[in-house]
């Protein structure tokens, strides 16, 4: 898939996840074969107000390319100014979040609230394009605000404003992340717009990615929550889409090896001590579902010293290697 001059290959991408898709996770995802990664969503208002915290969320390393920087907000002028700032960092894509269902986001008219005001979204896209300096602009949206399906209307408004691709998560704002994703919404958007369409929602196995592409015509498949603690899914789904056998699920030893690598990246990236705490949710996900790991999971979420946690993980990996796959 191409978004303007940005080649996305393979056509499996890591979805933006607030609190998760920081640089360490993105680097792991790219190493596992993701064709495109997203930053966490960043406030356009925060950027134009010179928020160092907002700018920090947009930092990335060269090996993360291609990368999309995602913005949220509700004022076209804020997006124009924020896009100029983001353009200075030179990401490959600037994305507009029109799908976040969180109350603290939608109450300001941002995120999924933009699906109620498609003309405003078109103005926001246009302003972002003006500020982006040639970097392609995309939009991520949902099926609608409530029970109505407004994804097609919203996607067309985004394209009118200059969006070069649209990502669709086919749950409504009121659904949040509950219930089943209605993939037919992705197909409707794909038929309606002339830009690439990325499909998202309920892709938890390699065969789900193939089925989504075949049923909806999506140009790329986006994987989010299912990749947390299981970045191998990105590689296995990419293989399935290319007609290859996806390969087996990773065993505990393989998960521990990547968890250790992820942890080291996190400690380097967030050297102020935050990495220890922010890595806990990732470690719990890496170890989920394996027998005999309950005690290890309990211990690693209580220890505040990163080196000590790495030692525990290393010892666990050694035991797994010695006893043929188990703790």
Give an overview in words.
By secondary structure, this protein is α/β, with parallel strands linked by helices. It is built from 15 helices and eleven strands. Helix 1 (23-31) crosses helix 11 (252-269) and helix 4 packs parallel to helix 6. The protein is globular and about 60 Å long.
Structurally, the number of domains stands at: 2
Instruction: Return the structural class.
Output: alpha/beta
CA-based shape? globular
How many strands in all? 11
Order of helices and strands: EEEHEEHHEHEHHEHEHEHEHHHHHH
Q: Which CATH first-tier class of the largest domain would you pick?
A: Alpha Beta
Distance between the termini: 42 Å
Which spans have pLDDT < 50 for at least 5 consecutive residues? Answer: none
- Using only C-alpha atoms, the radius of gyration works out to 20 Å
CATH architecture of the largest domain: Alpha-Beta Barrel
Oligomerization state of this entry?
A: single chain
Q: How much helix is in the residues?
A: 40-55%
């Amino acid at each position: 898939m191409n978004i303007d001059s940005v080649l996305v290959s393979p056509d499996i991408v890591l979805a933006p996840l607030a609190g998760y898709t920081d640089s360490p996770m993105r680097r792991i995802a790219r190493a596992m074969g993701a064709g495109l990664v997203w930053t966490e969503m960043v406030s356009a208002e925060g950027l134009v107000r010179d928020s160092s915290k907002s700018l920090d969320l947009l930092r990335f390393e060269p090996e993360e390319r291609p990368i999309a920087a995602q913005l949220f907000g509700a004022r076209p002028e804020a997006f124009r100014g924020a896009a100029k700032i983001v353009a200075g960092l030179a990401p490959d894509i600037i994305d507009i979040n029109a799908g976040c269902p969180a109350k603290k986001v939608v109450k300001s008219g941002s995120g999924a609230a933009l699906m109620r005001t498609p003309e405003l979204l078109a103005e926001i896209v246009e302003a972002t394009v003006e500020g982006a300096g040639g970097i392609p602009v995309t939009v991520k949206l949902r099926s609608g605000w409530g029970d109505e399906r407004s994804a097609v209307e919203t996607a067309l408004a985004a394209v009118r404003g200059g969006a070069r691709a649209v990502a669709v998560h086919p749950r409504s704002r009121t659904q949040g992340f509950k219930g089943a994703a209605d993939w037919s919404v992705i197909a409707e958007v794909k038929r309606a717009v002339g830009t690439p369409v990325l499909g998202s929602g309920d892709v938890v196995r390699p065969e789900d990615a193939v089925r989504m592409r075949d049923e909806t015509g999506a140009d790329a498949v986006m994987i989010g929550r299912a990749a947390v603690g299981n970045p191998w899914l990105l590689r296995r789904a990419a293989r399935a889409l290319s007609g290859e056998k996806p390969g087996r699920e990773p065993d505990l030893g393989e998960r521990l090896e990547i968890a250790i690598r992820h942890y080291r990246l996190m400690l380097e990236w967030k050297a102020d001590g935050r990495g220890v705490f922010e890595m806990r949710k990732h470690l719990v996900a890496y170890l989920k579902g394996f027998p005999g790991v309950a005690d290890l999971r309990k211990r690693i979420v209580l220890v505040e010293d990163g080196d000590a946690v790495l030692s525990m993980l290393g010892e666990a990996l050694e035991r797994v290697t010695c006893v043929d796959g188990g703790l």
